Amino acid sequence: MKETQIQIFLLIAFLFFAVPASITDIKKLVIPNWCSFSGILVISILRLCILKDNFLSTLVNLIAGALFFYTVRYVTGKRLGMGDVKFSALMGVFNRFPGWFTAVFIASISALLFTLAACAAGKIKRESKVPFAPFLSAGSIGAYFLHNVLISFIQGYLH
């Protein structure tokens, strides 16, 4: 398989888990464990066996993704769900670092803009729970395509 075909296959595999996670989170405010855990397993196998990624690197990406969100969960008094923590681990394996940061940045900005617009329109209240998986999924997909472009833009802006 060519590198481009493998990358497309990796994206499709991620979507297979991200789409049901997002739909379920929208409907029930929960991310099914099977989406996160199966996604981590499948993406890790693809990375290790087909892309020949380093096992330790894959493990570090998984743990770092989960640990960062778990810290946010702890600091915010559990306003972030454990499903988001587990899904972030999947994002770490899929996007890797520093792509994971790009994905979280895109997800956070889009969730903030959506929430502000929905509050301003009176569709939700400030205290309302907002499903985060759709934004995390979109952020991961956006980072998959735009990570290098965003990094170049930021570096050009800083210089």
How does this model look, in words?
By secondary structure, the protein is an all-alpha fold. The chain is built from six helices and no strands. The chain has helices at residues 3-28, 33-50, 55-75, 82-95, 99-120, 133-158. α1 packs antiparallel against α2 (33-50) and α5 packs across α6. The chain is globular, with a radius of gyration of 16 Å.
Which features does this protein show?
159 residues, 80% helix, mainly alpha
* Share of β-strand residues: under 5%
Stretches with pLDDT under 50, minimum 5 residues: none
- How far apart are the termini? 39 Å
- SSE run: HHHHHH
Shape, principal axes of CA atoms: globular
Mean pLDDT: 93
Number of spatially distinct domains: 1
Structural class: mainly alpha
Task: Report the total helices.
Answer: 6
Count of extended strands: 0
Helix content: over 70%
> Major sheet, described briefly?
none
Radius of gyration: 16 Å
Itemize the secondary structure elements and their pairings:
Elements: H1 3-28, H2 33-50, H3 55-75, H4 82-95, H5 99-120, H6 133-158
Helix pairs in contact: 1-2, 1-6, 2-4, 3-4, 4-6, 5-6
